[in-house]
């Protein structure tokens, strides 16, 4: 049960970390609102459940599309005007921090509105009672794994089998050269933000199966999202997959083991595990797991042994 929950949490963290990495690579912005993008998806799914009696699993496509619209809107309304005015990465980062606070306030106000029209409190909620087993394991484990496989396979096909994907990779690796070669950086940045919002909102639609959601959940989970991206390698999309599993499994399983020794009160400090791993990685290998030359590292270990 604990391992299942850890894998589900890791799967969702991967979606969030890939989105954060995409926007960082294409626009150089560390998006502090990524957690609130996920909470947006959570409340959208709750709305579909309360108003239209739509099961959360059936709302996943809706959350994906709506999250994409949110990500694109954020880029067009907030970031693109700042980039055109020559805003630095620090200014853009502060803008996402301000955006996160705005989203937090809007989601909080919306939760009150949804409580009023549905007759049930929306200040905090969880979908666990709505889940059901599939082949002896929890449904959210199967669904989150299928979503991860489908989205990563689609991303691979897009990046390596389409002309737009080649242009997108070129803009990630060397934006100046890509622009000289005729790549429209505006389109690639817009697409990256749209995809980032879609991935975050999709993760948010499944997150209530793993934990209780409140309007401030985004501010809490952003710690783990940043840790997953940086530990995996902030400049590498597939490093986000490695980082997501490293942080998700460590945070869940180590915190659980500590709770058996120190009591359940330790569970609220689970993010400390992610921060500790983040600090260690920055000290030992700041390029992240994906940036380490493992062949050279293994050879150096062999030479040391002999």
Automatic annotation (TrEMBL):
GO CC terms, sorted: plasma membrane
One GO biological process term: amino acid transport
Record localization: Cell membrane
Keyword terms: Amino-acid transport, Cell membrane, Membrane, Transmembrane, Transmembrane helix, Transport
Segments traversing the membrane: 6-25, 58-78, 90-110, 134-160, 190-207, 219-242, 254-270, 276-294
CDD domains assigned to the protein according to its UniProt record, in alphabetical order: TM_PBP1_LivH_like
One function term, GO molecular function aspect: transmembrane transporter activity
InterPro entries: ABC_transp_permease (IPR001851), BCAA_transport_permease (IPR052157)
Principal subcellular localization: membrane
Its membrane topology: Multi-pass membrane protein
Family: Belongs to the binding-protein-dependent transport system permease family. LivHM subfamily.
Listed name of the protein: Branched-chain amino acid ABC transporter permease
Source organism of this protein record: Candidatus Syntropharchaeum caldarium
